[in-house]
Design goal:
Elements lengths: L9 E5 L2 H4 L12 H8 L13 H15 L3 E5 L2 H4 L9 H16 L3 E7 L5 H7 L6 H17 L5 E6 L1 H4 L3 H4 L6 H29 L4 E7 L3 E3 L4 H24 L4 H9 L10 H7 L5 E4 L4 E4 L28 E3 L15 H15 L3 E5 L17 H19 L4 E4 L21 E4 L9 E4 L1 H11 L6
Parallel strand pairs: 1-2, 1-11, 2-3, 3-4, 4-5, 5-7, 6-8, 7-10, 10-11
Antiparallel strand pairs: 8-9, 12-13
The structure holds 6-O-phosphono-beta-D-glucopyranose.
């Protein structure tokens, strides 16, 4: 196969603030929802207090990114570092930190690609009005976004609003939904989702007003669901699974309106959010410039009928909040044709080609992959090597799928896998690693936090150097 990537293809790697920075309360930073939840699990796994210690070692880490050959580095700003209580005083030290990181990246010829919000809402906003449940939160976010655009917009041209709104909203812990009644939880969820859409639109408009040549878009958690059989009900269930878990979000960003199939569900479940008339214009006029997608795996679905005990639209299992099943819609099944990672994600490079084609055909906007990767319990050998050939195989398959999608006519701007270095995984701490760079620490023993290049680091370096020809 002749892998042709465009000359200016943006080879990158990704991270997020609470998973990599550490220094959770240093230099005035406020606590976030991500910190709060990680502390609740401190006895089980690493928390966000030290993470990969990027806050103190960013110069060394950016030098390693340069050596890797990165063209872009996708990372997030911690809202609570800039505004510790979310909507009050600005923290100068927080602004300075990201200023230094951005300047250091630019000195190394690496383009900063910034996410404004990656799961880490300032906790003070939860205490004040339960975060996204309040309309106030959308305007607090707009103010925070404007502060970032004004501070960094002269040097940063690529912006992402929310990381994976469509996934985050499904996870009670990330949204701080503490409601045991399933219907009430879904009602709060729908209202929060709406306020996040409003915040997204406000940020898109502010970016276009304040950042010359600024490009902004969402980063969605992408899905591709196969019908488990060719029974028409299962085919419909597979479509619904994709539409409900991702496409509704892109459709709203794209058109400014809730699509009919989603509004029908909200009505059926009696959870239509409160919307203000004046929001319509804001939602409609905010035009995203590109779509970023995070892709890890595919799903397979059968139809799950509703019955008297299980009303249509209700979730079947609250245990798995991400790939949940929904009565009257879909149930996820194991795909017998795919292998799964040790943590259960069904590995499927072909699915990425499908997703890229689908999104491009549907929205005709440039695409970029801002997460893709394999989480594993890597082993550090005595001579300090990590032989992660399984990760190389995973990434190779997915990069080949990108090349094929480009041949199919998809306008793909870049590929930025997860993650640049090992970082705090949401439920497995430092046991589950994704990075090109090994961080020598365990969950409860932070050791020296030494940076060690894995085999995949050298492999990816070659891929970038040859613009994909070495695959
Ligand atoms: C993505 C998130 O959904 O998945 C990342 O944007 C996360 O923040 C990644 O780390 C991998 O998930 P996990 O649970 O393995 O950390």
């Amino acid at each position: 196969m002749n892998k042709k990537f465009p000359e200016n293809f943006l080879w990158g790697a990704s991270s997020s603030a609470f998973q990599i920075e550490g220094a959770w309360d240093e230099d005035g930073k406020g606590q976030t929802v991500a910190d709060y939840n990680s502390f609740k699990r401190s006895h089980l796994q690493a928390d966000s207090k030290v993470a990969s210690d990027f806050y103190h070692r960013y110069k060394e880490d950016i030098a390693l990114m340069k050596e890797l050959g990165l063209k872009i580095y996708r990372f997030s700003i911690s809202w609570a570092r800039i505004i510790p209580d979310g909507d009050g005083k600005i923290n100068k030290k927080g602004l300075e930190f990201y200023d230094d990181v951005i300047n250091c990246l630019l000195e190394h010829d690496i383009i900063p690609f910034i996410t404004l919000y990656h799961f880490d809402l300032p906790y003070a906003l939860v205490e004040k009005y339960n975060g996204w449940e309040s309309r106030e939160c959308a305007f607090a976010f707009e103010r925070y976004a404007k502060i970032c655009f004004e501070a960094y917009g002269d040097r940063v041209k690529y912006w992402q609003v929310h990381n994976e709104q469509n996934l985050m909203i499904r996870v009670d812990e990330r949204m701080n939904i503490n409601e045991s009644d399933a219907w009430k939880a879904d009602k709060i969820r729908a209202q929060m989702d709406y306020h996040m859409f409003l915040a997204h639109a406000l940020a898109v408009k502010a970016c276009h007003d304040l950042v010359e040549d600024g490009k902004i878009g969402p980063a969605v958690s992408s899905t591709c669901t196969y019908p488990h059989t060719n029974k028409p009900e299962d085919v419909w269930a597979a479509k619904m699974n994709d539409w409900f878990k991702t496409n509704y979000c892109l459709d709203i960003h794209f058109t400014g309106e809730y699509p009919g199939y989603y509004m029908r569900y909200l009505k059926e479940r009696n959870i239509v959010p409160v919307m203000e008339e004046a929001d319509k214009d804001i939602l409609k006029s905010a035009k995203m410039d590109y779509i970023a997608l995070n892709y890890y795996r595919t799903l397979s679905a059968t139809y799950l009928p509703a019955d008297e005990k299980h009303p249509v639209g209700s979730r079947a299992f609250r245990g798995n909040e991400v790939d949940f099943d929904q009565y009257g819609y879909f149930r996820d099944e194991k795909n017998p044709y795919l292998n799964a990672s040790e943590y259960g994600a069904q590995i499927d490079p072909m699915g990425l080609r499908i997703v890229l084609n689908e999104y491009y055909q549907r929205y005709r906007l440039p695409l970029i992959i801002t997460e893709n990767g394999l989480g594993c319990a890597d082993v550090l050998t005595e001579d300090k090597k990590v032989h992660d050939d399984y990760r190389i195989e995973y990434l190779k398959g997915h990069i080949e799928a990108c090349a094929l999608a480009i041949e199919d006519g998809v306008e793909l701007m870049g590929y930025s896998p997860w993650s640049v270095m090992d970082l705090l995984s949401s439920h497995q701490g430092f046991k589950k690693r994704y990075g090109f760079i090994y961080i020598n620490r365990e969950d409860h023993d932070i050791k020296e936090l030494e940076r060690i290049k894995k085999d995949s680091y050298y492999w990816y370096q070659k891929v970038i150097e040859t613009n994909g020809e070495s695959l």
